Description:
Strand content: 35-45%
Order of helices and strands: EEEEEEEEHHEEHEEEEH
Largest sheet: 6 strands, mixed
Distance between the termini: 65 Å
Helix content: 10-25%
Strand order of the largest sheet: 10-9-14-13-12-11
Number of strands: 14
Low-confidence stretches: 1-7
Number of helices: 4
Amino acid sequence: xxxxxxxxxxxxxxxxxxxxxxxxxxxxxxxxxxxxxxxxxxxxxxxxxxxxxxxxxxxxxxxxxxxxxxxxxxxxxxxxxxxxxxxxxxxxxxxxxxxxxxxxxxxxxxxxxxxxxxxxxxxxxxxxxxxxxxxxxxxxxxxxxxxxxxxxxxxxxxxxxxxxxxxxxxxxxxxxxxxxxxxxxxxxxxxxxxxxxxxxxxxxxxxxxxxxxxxxxxxxxxxxxx
Length: 226
């Protein structure tokens, strides 16, 4: 598949079929029918990933060999982005994090979105470094709020950054930072800034209403209820 072909590009790959990929611009790929795919880079390194129907991925420009190593036909639609549309790829990446990781509670796709050495900055100025630490932090909130859901209220993208304003809701049915379950529902508003390089989030800054959450949980007094 070459960047000179008309877009969008439709690829159907039978089990065992090989494609030589060479794209000069980032792409957004939508999976119609999934399978297992092995990618071989020019230096000989290989990586295998499972892709699923309905999945949308933002991928950087690359040159590699792609093999369908699964048992089913792989069907994807790829749109090569113009330089001015890099912001669209960044928006798609952050929306995938919200939809698949947070709302779908699928921690397995974090490696497709976050950089292995990425840094997360929380509201208190603390830092969480590296992908496994971020995975563990998110899992803690899934345990505390099993029905956690995130609604994106607004997004703005410019350059390598995406700003997302969101509302998070959930019921406190599990332990949270030493706080036993209160069975209370919370609604928290926040803003996240993601810095994206080559199709991965490398740095995140988040500000959310932590005091409001603690008040809704009954951990600290709420003046409005006194």
